[in-house]
Design a protein that fits this description.
The structure is a homodimer of 220-residue chains.
Chain A (H helix, E strand, L loop, with lengths): L9 H19 L4 E2 L1 H8 L3 H9 L11 E2 H12 L5 E6 L3 H8 L1 H5 L2 E8 L8 E2 L2 E5 L3 H8 L4 E4 L3 H14 L3 E4 L12 E4 L2 H14 L10
The structure holds a DNA duplex (24 and 24 nucleotides).
DNA sequence: TAGATTGTTAATCGATTAACAATC
DNA sequence: TAGATTGTTAATCGATTAACAATC
């Protein structure tokens, strides 16, 4: 997979999501124009950093005026690839899986669950939050025939994580949001993001133990 | 809250948790000694970085030999403050809250839920995963009388996030793991870690859209 | 002692911020 | 035109990595 441009730091991409969020809020308030200083205040970053980050992707403002809110909002969404609906497929309809299916945050941001898989016969065939649960053995066939989703969401037990991830990869899935504590070995063709709540707890423990803040207020 | 030492980067603290995890695995395998090169391989980092990170906190190895696994494992736990049980209090026993209460990862790492609060009369009084759910109006009194937990876990609706966080702060809680999408305004006396799944999805979208990997394999 | 590996300093690399010319 | 603010370069800051003396 080719690297785009002279190398954009991933931290800059993460901040783009932050900017998009605040531009969306400004847009909803009917505000048409914003300066880098104003946006920086809202996001809690340096104004020069916003201008630098945006410059990685093009020119979006007007000197002397600032940035047009609705246009910049859409531009950033296009850059992030979030100016469309992405379909999610859940594997593992346990406690966490159920909570994710019902988590309204996802749909609000254009992430929609279109499939769910489990191996428990008690769960297979049921409807959770409007999504029919299929048997995990049907997964490969369903993905190949209908490609019902873009991103696999992994919420199975740790023991099954690698084998389910392998099956997702074999079926053609190229992105996985991994809620298990396992480090997945899938090679460079599959993008993996690990979500580990306990790392955050470790940071809170460190801060409390030492009276030294290593937390960050803004989401990463 | 005083800053310890000549300034330890938070990324170094995050890596300490990574080292602790792999040292624990080595210890379970009965391995007694490890070099910075071997540990670096396991963790996927540079060996000099491990030696540098450890040097922030003291001397743990023997030149010519390496590091004693069980001793270093315990030392890092002491540094992180995870050589003890931490008690968690959940606020908001919805889908996500329930999943967190039942999430076995927490207990395995020494994080134990000892209290849970909600305002739904259907839920108050029930037992979820061995934890009795109390009314949120009882929270302040319970914390002040019994201080049943150290860290508040916030899984309420966004609208309630700030007011519940304020109540936790008033009750004396000094650390919050925030699962809501709201940025909490609590001042410097409360440590806050935000958990936002959707940021991770944005990164996957960017990677898929551009064919340029901005994900990280190792959990943050 | 010779070989190995830490602890630490110095060199490198990359990201953030300041400054300012371009320009609306 | 004068004032404002971007886009971009240069300066600063901080983190990573290389190198090596200390030492087991």
């Amino acid at each position: 997979m080719n690297q785009k441009d002279p190398k954009i730091p991933k931290i800059a991409v993460i901040r783009m999501a932050l900017y998009a969020k605040h531009l969306g809020l400004l847009d909803n308030q009917g505000i048409r124009v914003v300066s880098s200083v104003e946006l920086a205040d809202l996001c809690g970053v340096n104004p020069a950093q916003i201008r630098k980050d945006l410059a990685y992707f093009g020119q979006f403002g007007t000197r002397g005026l600032g940035y047009p809110v609705p246009e910049l909002s859409l531009s950033i969404k296009k850059i992030l690839g979030t100016n469309r609906i992405w379909h999610l497929g859940l594997v593992g309809v346990g406690n966490l899986g159920r909570a994710l299916l019902r988590h309204s945050q996802f749909a609000e941001q254009g992430f929609v669950f279109t499939a769910a898989f489990d191996l428990d016969p008690q769960v297979v065939g049921t409807l959770v939050s409007g999504v029919k649960v299929s048997h995990v053995d049907q997964m490969k066939r369903m993905i190949r025939e209908r490609s019902p989703f873009d991103i696999g969401v992994l919420a199975v037990r740790p023991e099954e994580a690698q084998s389910v991830a392998d099956r997702l990869k074999d079926s053609g899935i190229r992105a996985i949001l991994n809620f298990t504590p396992m480090v997945l070995a899938l090679g460079p063709d599959v993008y993996v993001e690990n979500v580990d709540f306990t790392v955050r707890l470790h940071l809170l423990c460190y801060s409390m133990t030492h009276g030294s803040d290593v937390t960050q207020q803004h989401p990463r």
